[in-house]
Amino acid sequence: MAEGEIHALIGENGAGKSTCLGLLNGVHKPTLGEIYINGERVIIDSTGHAQSLGISCVFQELSLASKLSVAENIYAGRAPTRFGIVNWKELNKKAQNLLNEFGLDIDVSQSVDSLPISTRQIIEIAKAISLDSKILLLDEPTSALTPDEVQALFKVLKKLAASGIGIVYVSHHMSEIFEISDKISVLRDGTKIATYDTNKITKNQVISDMIGSDISHNIQIKNPKIGDTIFELKNYSQDGIFEDIHFELKRGEILGLAGLLGSKRSEIVRSSIGLINGAIGETYIDGKVIKITSLRHAIKLGIGFVPEERKTEGLFLDFSVGDNLSVASLEQHSNMGIVQKKSIHSATEKAIEEFSVKTQGTDVAIGQLSGGNQQKIMLAKWLERRPKILIIEEPTKGVDIGAKFQIHEVLRQYASEGMAIIIISSDLPEIISLSTNIIAIHEGKITGKLSANETTEDNLMQLMAGTMNTSSTASASTQV
Amino acid sequence: MPNSQSDLTSLKNKSKLQRILSAFVDVRELMLIVLIALIIIVMAIQNPYFFSISNFRAVAVGMAPTAVIVIGMAILLASGGFDLSVGSVMALSSTVVAMLLLDGFSIPTAVIFGLFIGAAVGLVNGLLVTGLGINPLIATLGTLSITRGIALVLTEGFSLSSLPSAFGWIGKASFFNFPVIVLLVLALVIVFDLAVRHTRFFRQIYFIGANEKAAMLSGIDVKKITILAYVLTGTLASLAGILLASRLMSGTPTAGNGIELQVLAAAVIGGASLRGGEGTILGAFLGVVFVALINNSMTMLAVSIYWQMIIIGAVLVVAVALDMLLRSDSRLKTTKN
Question: How close is the nearest chain B Cα to the Cα of A119, in Å?
């Protein structure tokens, strides 16, 4: 990478983009390979070290202290002082000048939490620049920005590049990358596929590199028995998050919701089962309008929900496999309020066998199991309840190929027995091979509805990225 | 219990020292029983009066209020919360019951109303924590001060004595030489220990304490159960206050001052943790017995009351430090993966 160059890294979720930045920033350590700066080999062992080498990083998650002022945040730990006392006047002046360069006209003495997320993002970048960085790493910097703000940011980035700063720009927004970058490197499954000069390459080439056109394990379900509509959202909207969502889910159907980071597909689903309040619109279950007020209400109505974050939202890592399996179905395993350990034990053994979970027993803490085995138990926990509708976020996130295959098989099996399943997945081959029908979502709106056999990774990716124009969306959309 | 399982399975990852220690400490209750036996043996040799029925009786009766409250505290700690207002609730209940008795109300009426006060304070604590999302430290620090203040305002700071003699029965009566108050405490400990191990309601508390978000996403009614845990703790605290009033035959607005810290220390020594998700009632009760015996022994050995404070503090820190050391690597593993 050269001085003043904007180099984009692009790839699907899990392709290794963020890890790659972590390597450069000293958060992760390489197991193999070398990093060179100005021709000199360096070993980056901490974020502080990376900064002293002139590398700064802005991550997806904001890292500002929300109660402190804008100026304090930018110069955190480096405020100008006089006799050890912070020189507020000087500090605010420096911060104001810096932000003016970004075209941001705000009062630098106000606290960060009074500002919108987009402004905080720019402050975060300003902070990185203020460290005299020669290399700036940006991880999905626009995921929370409006188009105008993106343009403002791009202006700043181009100015920075012109002044000789090298920028690594990680994103999966195709149009942004083509607008801002000089070079594009495509990553897939942790491997670099290719590097191109941006002006010599087409979006389609990049997309097929991202998804790996050779992947074609589309094992289709034989004669799926699709029944009546069991779940439907109509005119479903939430201010500023998603609007006018409409879809139907039928018995025996696996409905895939596809969308990129920031598409709000999770928010739609979580709202519909009472986890997020404030959405308007109608929810139908078995044809009846039902206002779902809480997740507990949804569960009583026969809905199961497997969340995305296994470790923070799904499991009790210090607790046993049996505890984790039975937590959502303690009623079934209780008699007059007394938990029947035998009943839990036999249910757990059954699940371990059905999913071929590798564990030394039902009493082992689930944190000791591999990701794939944890995921299987998390899924089995809900299947225990025999829900009519099962909603799964990222069914195979961080799971090895073998476990992935087994989870897919189990889901197909339950669907063929009449369970209605919604999956949210960032894994395009997965969503295409598993779903009966697919809904593409871009920035809180449905951009297309496809049936499994007319979906290709190419057209789905374009719908998800919002790059397919409306006329082609209309032709791709069919009755679901 | 979940915690001991994770320790067992990670045995092979531990150093030899940690392995030996964890084999010893894995069952916290067992460790405490051994330590308690050790204290008794050493002290019996040192001081013949220590090993007498009258001394054990005095220790058992003296620790009764703490033992009643620690049941609620252990449950709250398992749910990831805790309650600093228990000492104040003791005081308010004991004074209100005394006032009602002096006003001529019957003993059952007064006692039920006294228990109701504890439940009400617990409800307020629970609502502040779950409804408004106030940190339990702050919420119960507030109710600690308010409740104690009410007790002092109602009595203008004076103790209320000359209670009807029948009220003193439970505090003084014996059954085959066992103080009834001690039998009541043991019964409560056994009932709650079994309930916490085996009932669905209390099992849910561990899930809430271990991972509140995952518990909510598993369909557990986190708010309702958390509120009920605070109500239970408040009710037990007022029971402790009433038992104390019965024994002393007076309602005292300064009763239970600072007892919350003793209770917390005993519960933690007994295997509970501020992280939540672990601990048993039996363990917490043994923690109370252990601390009470150490205090008693030091008094017998004529150690000054000031030194007793220092030693109890050191015991608490050592117990927790040992615990952290023993599980440090399994913790790291589960958070890093």
Answer: 28
